[in-house]
Amino acid sequence: MFAQLIRKIKEVSLNAGEFKIATGELRTYIDCLSEDVFKSIVKEIGIIPENIEHDSTEEKLYSKASDIVLARCFRLLGLASRALDERADSADILAESQSGYNYSLVADAKCFRLSRTAKNQKDFKVSNLSDWRGSENEYAVLVAPYFQYPQSTSQIYSKALENNVCLLAWEHISIMLEQNIKETEFLSLEALWNASQMIARDKSLAFSSAKHCFLPKMDSYVAKKLGLSKNEYSNILNSYKHLIIYRAKTEIMYWNQCIEEIQKYTREKAIEELIKAKKLHEKINAINSYINKLCK
Questions:
Q1: Measured distance CA(145)–CA(64) in Å, rounded
Q2: CATH number of 2-228: 3.30.470.30, 3.40.50.300, 3.40.50.1240, 3.40.91.70?
Q3: Total-model pTM
Q4: Closest CA relative to residue 142, chosen from 187, 153, 150, 244
């Protein structure tokens, strides 16, 4: 089902004349998926496929699709939520409690390629998300792939604690959906979105350490909401590793196929592709454009 979503992204990126039109088509497609199919997509959305070209319209549409997916996740969790129109310097998702708890949150969905190993704090935009919350929203939530959060010292954890930004994972969201957790007048999820503040109160924790800070604490909070023991929860979380391994094999297969294709290139084709890859014509055009403006 995830592969069908990728085909849809590629389709609308070719046929739509405007980004907004393509986004609308994706929103309709995702929101009309059956709940079971949708939940299967949530399990994989955090990993960008290697066949989505970097810095392409497809990649931008994939990012927008992840926003739409996360917004529907919040709705399945019992909140009113929507993915906002593309605007600079603002959050991508807004969600509000509709069970009488009187809070709202902004959220940002993060997805990464398995081939991208070097991630820094700017990739997570924790400080930006805190600013985007503004004065009208109580909480800020970042959702990224669990196993692609920094596993050692990183400033994102201290920044999240300082700014009360909740660091959740797609796996956390997926597990809650699979367990049919939903906010009601009898069950509030507010403590999850406010987890950073609770963690920050524990002065024994090293603010920059993943091992002793966010991930294990968030795991314990999610497990408690689900009514699962530590071992039960760990088994469920570890099962997601099998899906990641399967995806990894798929992505490696894609690149191996690319290598095979390249090995079939003629000398002329290889030169042409290298010039295209280095964007040499674009660089020449940019310089000419600059010079032409000077001469006017």
A1: 16
A2: 3.40.91.70
A3: 0.88
A4: 150
